[in-house]
Fold each of these.
Amino acid sequence: MHHYLTYLFLSLVTNAFFTPSHAQNLLEFKAKHSYESKANDIWGYTDENSREYAIMGLENGTTIVDVTDPNNTEELFFIEGVFSVWRDIKTFNHHAYITHDYTPDTSGFGLLIIDLNNLPNSIDTLTITQIDTFEYRRAHNIFIDENGFAYLFGSNLFNGGAIILDLNNDPKAPEYAGSYSTEYIHDGFVRGDTMWTSEINAGQFAVVDVSNKLNPSILSIQETPNRFTHNCWLSDNGKVLYTTDERPGAYVTAYDVSDLSDINELDRYQSSPGFDVIPHNVFVKGKYLYISYYKDGLIVIDASDPKSLKQIGFHDTSPQFPSGDGFQGCWGVYPYLPSGNIIASDREEGLYVFTIKNEQSINDSIIAVLSPSLTFDNSKLSYNIPKDQFGEGGNISIYNVSGKLMTSNKINEPQGSFKISGTNYNSGVYFATLVFSNTFITSKFIKINGQ
């Protein structure tokens, strides 16, 4: 399947892109575990002996897989659970905390806690349904911050906002610390005393001061482009927030949040424009974004310049599904294992394990491919491809800002041009993609009436 890139800049730019068959891709596939039950979210854990594990939710329970050696992975434990499409997992102090959302009877069955101290030999589990005086049944997501506070989002309590639990005194007996109920929260991120909420129904993220967890206060609110804010993740330096909107053809968006009184959008990334692929979750590690992108699989973005998001790797985890609308494919990704290996979950295919190739070879490859050009001037679109890269021909396609295909032209020579004119081309923003020898470049141009 082809993956098209859209970069929204203030000026015309050209960027390289690698298709699945291109030799240079940051991700290298190592292993896969398939299951009879469909998978949902995934998290990782490393024990005191540096052994690494994947903890993945399934519709019928939770699986723990030893992924220390990507060439010799092993499922160690399966914890059966009530049927649920949604499970979410986080770890703290050698324990895993697992939520599930709606079940067949819609009531839910509490918070699963797994004691991981004795891995890989054994585990212990318990389920809690009572938090302080509240009967807890279910939640859509969970986040645990660096200070040992867990935030349960989208639960049966507090308008589906956030329940805040203190895990420090006894990891098996979370203590109620506070709540937030202004909006339903689908997912969230917390660092220090600041909670970043993905308020999917309101189509926005909120920035919330949780220094007083019994009385959180809103610092700022920002709408997201497709008004269906699914998840968010903060950059390591705390200056940029990345969000996903879980709608067909939606964006992964970068925001400058260094001044909460003046939040600004920096850039957007969209996989396969015109094919209505849905982004799910974005995670940040260093300069890279790791995105579970449903039918387009796992995508890696270089965000070293958040004003210029560039794709540098991906793996199509469900090749049987062409790019398009739908919730099949890659659900979650965990890029934080100390080894640098990446684990991901796919709804239909199960658990994936990837390693990261040498970054310098990827960077050198990107520089090498940037030499072709695609430019626009006075209604003329021109291209220039070095003869040694041209291969057996290529194709130029033009899309409007909504992703609609305007025209597609086969090219048989490494240099050429053609007119952009006619009643179909009203004033506005368009994107041209040039495909040749398994390589993409893309440019944005602005058409003005009279040109």
Amino acid sequence: MKQIAIVICNYNGGMDTVHCIEAVMKNTWKDIDIYVVDNASEDNSVALIENSFGDKVTILHNEENLGGSGGFGRGMRHAVDQGYEYVMLLDNDAFIDTDTIEKLYVYIRAHKEIGIVGAKIMTLNDRERIFDFAKMMQWDKFYDGSEWYGRMDSPETQKPFECDYVAATTAIARREAIIASGGMDEAHFIYYDDIEMCQRIRMSGYKVVCLGTAKAWHRSSLSQRRTNTFAEYYMTRNRYRFYGKYLPEERLEEFADYIIAQAFPYMYGSHYMGREDVYLSNKYIIEDFMNDVRGKARPGRIQTIKSNYKENIAKLIRGKKKIGYYIKETGSEGTARRFVHLVEEIDPEVAIENISKEDAAAYDMVVCFCGHVKDESENILPAVYIDMHNNIVDDWNAYLYFQNYDNAYSFFSHIYKPAILEGIARIREKV
């Protein structure tokens, strides 16, 4: 029997999956079997794989799309049942270096205390820029991250780093660690599945390491322009569940307050500004989390992004010839730049200038860029407030609506916080 089972999850991957497998076959380490778990693809992926590789690749067919979690989960279970000592997880849009398998395998085999070792993930369209490396859980912020994200590759990263988790993009796990941790929780569907698996591997007594000399290049959907709320829904729903499950008991009320503070500002502003996609997305995330809805999102949960910001700006500047703007709060510069760009695109004849507040009388319209319109108690109408969330206060009704923010927030928290805490309690009872 070969030492390593390589598990690639495919859903409509087309030629990406073929190129991924080709990179595997070019690797220096040959003691491998390749399994592709196909999530009921609707394109010609399966035919492409069969025609390109024949019996060199074994295809495991899922009858429906079970997401990355279900695909990897099935592949890992199959590999463990077949008796493989090591299982390599590989995203179908990741392309490994020629010696990546060998480096990961040699390292984990030489270090019995390590349960899983991951490669350094590089950005496909900027090959020397790091995308994912040596990530840590930010328990104080209820998030995760890496100090290396977005940085150029350097000698500092050419070594092993013990970390909290490695991405399933390219990683090798030890059979015993998979069994001890229970493998991948397939109910995630996608996102945070590898994070929680690494958490359970660590809780089982093993270490998690990212090996800086082993590389893969990833065409991540997270780096592409979003057209819907797919990533936001699954990432946030599963992240909330992770922290609700593993935080110390004494921090759960703080976490519930955090969830409300994350969701409500988007829901309140987007509802008024006509962004039902933003409103419903945040509403569904918080409700599905506290009701522990898992697996594939229910119909209607994933919203198509329908930005109306340009339309709102066009209405705002109609008939104006000379617009002045000033920045009230640091951090609003990007919002101001975007506004200027849109004005120039919508009506190149409009003159727009960065001014001081005292010069407002000389302009048809004045715009103040702030952090959040809810924090602006001063009524500067007919001047306009625009905040970093694209909320706009340009008339008396909008001003009164956002002045009522604190009262609405208190009511929302009064309703939702007990429900969130009850939901967390149910999740923790299942552990």
Amino acid sequence: MRSSSRDLPLRLALSAVLLSWLAACEPPPPRTQDKELQAHWQRARQEVDGALKGHDFDRAQAALERFDQEIARAEGRGVATSEDLERARQFLGTSRERIETTRITAQIDDYLDRGSFPLARSFLRLCLYSPASSEERMRFCEGQLGRVETAQLDAVERQVEEDLARESYDKTAGYLGLYLNAGEFSDPGLERLEGLLARAEEARQVRLAGHTPPVPPPHSSPPTVPLPSPPAPAPPPPALSSIREPEVAGLRFVEVASGRYQIGTPPGEPGRDPVLEPEPRIVAVETFFISTTEVTQESYVQIVPRIWKHFSGPRFPAHSVNYADAEEFCRRLSEEDGRMVFSLPTEIEWEVAVRALLSPSEGPVVGQPKHRERFQGDLDRAALTLQSYALFRDNKTGSGPIEVGQKSPNRFRLYDMHGNVAEWTRRVPELEGWYRGSLVEQPLRGGSFLSAYERCRAGARALEPEATRRPTIGFRIVARPR
């Protein structure tokens, strides 16, 4: 459970004081003429306190059951007042809650001692979503989730220190990337992970800067090795006179012509997810303009103030933005520009753009070699070809995204449509049956620097909660004249 809207220190403080608060809430034994009830109340309180100190929850529960029976007997005797009986029942309620929170704390202590963080989270989620959980217990469990997160991040930090001391940079970046994409951490937790990832990258760069090649001994001639011919430069994309190129806030746009295009993936495509990826279909698209790169930090801060602590620079993608952040950027840019209306691309617009047909008459054959190889089923060759177009898991050398426009563009002159950062897109009615029924998830397309080849395919889709912010997520935008 990701609690990005809650303050982590507040949750930890709440968890720490709730047990003592519950004990303080227990009313003292009543001063009543029913001396028998008063004695049983005092005895029950002492038995519960002693049992909880030894984590003997069954004994504590049995003491409360006996006292519950004594309350019924006192009510039959008619000596205790209704207020006394109500306070006795209140003692039962708060004591039962105290038993459960102590039981939860003991179980979480055991999981943390063993380093079983996923089990701790699963246990707390069961407590949170149990119909028997009171509001106080749910708040307590949320505080315990914060405690689990802090303990896990402490363990991760210790592991990072050990791996960096062994110069295991790729291993460190790998598991930190998995944690960042797990969707398990709060925003403060994600910031801490990003800081560890930046530290790992800094250590790698320091190590590379300090590395010098071995010097050959004096009076020895180095072996003659023929130098390989430099690779031929990739041919420039064909000039597309029909595509106009407006520029707004440092972002250049190209025009995609209206028409009917094919989207979707065939059943036999390697890496296809049949749950998320629809089969091929023809869709109608109106003319739109799309930014040639992902929105950069330089462009973003012209419209929305923001500071990136990690993977920052004018030409780096504006990452770690959630769906609302991206939409707010579009809204403000539309107001400021006055000529165009900006938005996130729909899934259909994004897929038409990534497949890059020069005209609808080209039919279903997509333009880039990796797509043709993909349809032939040669996944390894396809992944090798993708390295020219995308930063993804197989070819990343650092621990984060790179500046936009460093890889080859597709035939629409669009950069980084595959990899680098995954891109938010908008839902469309044509794919309504493929959204798993969730109204708080939004589609991500293109894969990221941590994605395998299969997740960077043109037809690959992912659904993420719209509040998600990660270094693997950014966006590009489309525009239409007013």
Amino acid sequence: MWPRRWAGCCTDGPSRVSAPVTDRIAIGLAIVIGGLLAADFLFADGAGAFFLARRFMDLLEYLAFWR
């Protein structure tokens, strides 16, 4: 059903196992996200974070409608 490159079909046998997220990768992502949020609050008074929070709330409301 799915193309093999998506590796999402469970009837084709075992799919490729991707590399796990290590502590080093998780800490790096947290630092990058924290830095971007800090820059947003420093330079734009948190407008970007507020915009993303509003859009996320709209998404949750949309998904709740389809529940």
